[in-house]
């Protein structure tokens, strides 16, 4: 019988891919591929980063011969990038100490050519996908990156308040473009732009004389930016010396993620609806560089023509290397409960799915593409990520293509296989009486081994069921490898990852259908998924639990009140519990209005939140706190002390309300809470991620294992427990 700690530790030994590229010194027959990976280090409570070179011999279009080089720990390197020719490379490095120091390293022929300390010029580098940048100019004479502007030391001005960019960006307020001139080795931090605009995602123009970047607008109010595609943004160009700022997309309120074609003639980018849902169906647009004309390549899809039809694009950022020809790009996008690889013709707007569900029922993420090759990862709920190489072959007209895929490498961690190979998965859909868009990824433990289920942590002849809705609410589960899912399945639970109405990958109408109905439609659909799975007879009908984070925690709290006897226990991670109380303290106050179908204009936000009593009533009516007195099932809350998205007060107040109710009714209620310092909304520090997974697994086992007594032992009622620290067999998808 495995414990959550044993399962998590074994699965944590599997590294995950964070990037890959085919190096410039590759030939037609031999590819030198640089792979970037990360792995959890549970001893040091850090995430280790390392690179590895994979050499693939691809002679005669046969299955490649693969040679793997040793892994090299990148240590305190923040970002690295080879120059276009491969002759040079740049490393951005931050070195911890009594005072953190920052360096730009230029490498050539395996040694440092030039070392530039930039500590006096700027603060931390940005390496995230929102602002983060590291790019070479085509002529290899310049480098651009983004760093936090130096804070003023003026005796008065240093006390002036300036908001930061919210969740995951604590203390980061002023991202700035930094240009390194390799002819003079001058490092220049460009001046602030008019309008208090923050730059990010910068690339060089084709002639290397100017920069093209995404500008994030923050006037009059700062809004949290991570996970939010509906923010006010635009594309801009500026000369490398900081002069000549030009707005490239003045007719659009949303424009981000610029990617320039190899010949410099066409710029593609993404645009989402401003205001409303934080994530939605995106437009793909293009800008003709010569004329400045902007046109739509792929429009918003309201509703797929059929269940298997194209549902639109759901992309946070375009791949850095996305162009495969002057007219085609490769992207990955959500398609129902999976993610797939798409080829898009930027001239005609035609779209081809390159990884159809019949062959690739799981999730494909593109890492790199050029005119000859594409690198992706692929996984399923019961198969770890593998690295895949695709050979691109164009037809004679150069408009049609086909891709032949080869597996380059997969997980070699033998001790982890016992915790994913015995399990199976399927997609639950076509639930009677429900919308066609309602789906769940259903993972079953030990399907072909009844004795393993009996001897599991929860015991019994059939597994208990975990209902697990996602956060957002406008996000979604994809059929991919998840350690948290597999911890639960390894303990003997069956897990249903619910993609309720509002999830991405089903069309824009589906996104908007949840607006104004949170806490009602999504709650009822979670119950419908539960009841449908219970009716199949594959799980124990008397042992159902629920867990979720953020909006998933919001739904979990609602479910406990909606059906007080229908769930044996619940674990809520940073849950939204009281929407009106959250509106003025979260970094995304607009969310509180948007999901409840109330107007909120980011260009003219209200002067006082929740000032209208009718608005307060509406938000409160949608909140789990409205019904907390109905909750009786054992509950555990897992809280990130640094959460800016759903502040800890949301979980604390729900927990306290339950404590008061337990005392008032003198019941034997179980109501626990754990708080993890040094982590935020995602509970994604290694310490919080691992320990919250242990707590979640142990808590659900405690109240579902067959030999658990029906009444808790005397003296345990309402005690707070606080801790500081977060396809068929073999993965082939089936449908039920």
Task: State the helical fraction.
Answer: 10-25%
The description of the largest β-sheet is: 10 strands, mixed
Uncertain segments are: 709-736
Portion of residues in beta strands equals: 25-35%
Structural class: alpha+beta
According to DSSP, the number of beta strands is 40
Average pLDDT score: 93
The Cα radius of gyration reads 26 Å
SS summary, helix count: 11
Distance between the termini: 29 Å
What coarse outline follows from CA principal-axis ratios?
Answer: globular
Protein model, in words:
The chain is of the alpha+beta class and 736 residues long. It contains eleven helices and 40 strands. Strands 31, 32, 33, 34, 35, 36, 37, 38, 39 and 40 form a ten-stranded mixed sheet that branches. Strands 1, 2, 3, 4 and 5 form a five-stranded antiparallel sheet that branches. Strands 10, 11, 12, 13 and 14 form a five-stranded antiparallel sheet that branches. β25 (338-345) and β26 (351-353) form a beta hairpin. α1 (4-12) packs antiparallel against α3 (483-490) and α5 (521-536) packs across α6 (551-562). The longest helix is centred in the C-terminal third of the chain and has 18 residues, at 648-665. The two termini are 29 Å apart. Mean pLDDT is 93; it is low at 709-736. Its EC number is 3.4.19.1. One of its GO terms (molecular function) is serine-type endopeptidase activity. It is an enzyme of class 3 (hydrolase). It catalyses: Cleavage of an N-acetyl or N-formyl amino acid from the N-terminus of a polypeptide. Residues 481-699 form the Peptidase S9 prolyl oligopeptidase catalytic domain.
